[in-house]
Amino acid sequence: VPSYPIPVVPVKWLLGSDLLGDGLTHESHRKDVEQVYLRCSEGSIEWMYPTGALIVNLRPNISPASYKHLTVCIKPFKDSAGANIYLEKTGELKLLVRDGERSPSRVYCFGYDQGGLFVEATPQQDISRKITGFQYELMSKGIAADLHTASAPCRPCSDTEVLLAVCTSDFVIRGSIQNVTNEAEEQESIIHVGVNKLYRQKSKVFQLTGESGNWRGQIKTLLECGVKPGDGDFLFTGRMHFGEARLGCAPRFKDFQRMYKEAKDKGLNPCEIGPD
Length: 276
What we know:
Elements (H helix, E strand, L loop, with lengths): L18 E4 L10 E6 L3 E7 L4 E6 L11 E7 L6 E7 L2 E6 L10 E4 L4 E6 L9 E10 H8 L10 H10 L2 E13 L4 E14 L5 E3 L4 E9 L11 E8 L2 E4 L5 H13 L11
């Protein structure tokens, strides 16, 4: 889903591509409900000193007929507090994130057609110490399923899946595993990658470092996948998710060369990319 700049919305809190609100201006209207309309496919909301409630309407600049194919994911800020976040449809509320819930890196996803977001402030003795915030992303249901199916990042990809990933991934690089850092609390592994060739990247995750001019970056995957440092080059592909590179297909580079050549000889490769 393409990302677009957020236009002016009918609320007075707007900073850059993210929404920032201040509930102290509504101190005398604790039961007020504000509606906000966001046109970006990704961004963040930060509600300072929350009182009353917010209805967050995500309205991406695509055909409404495509809405049924979208998944919405939200990731609360680490220190988010002061409000409950609900999924709302036709007046019925389903609790997504309870005020004060602490789940590092927890992401909550739901189908676009399942409802919208209703953010309700909880009673507080001192609201000036509270800030509710979260990032959000809209993506196709297929991509969301790949990102949030526990077994997907650990299962070896077929030749067809690798060739398709090369064409559709947010990043495609040839590189080696320099180190792996395991984060037990978040149940994730961080793969520190040395890049030998950069084919494509959507965001500047892989950058030149030091005077040597080497490209390096980090890719995250599930801890259960058991990734370890090793010799040899891999073809790393994957998606950007809340500003982080998430691992997709990652065959050894020599295996990619074989499957790419076989597909090219048969005229079946879905896109052109130099294998060397």
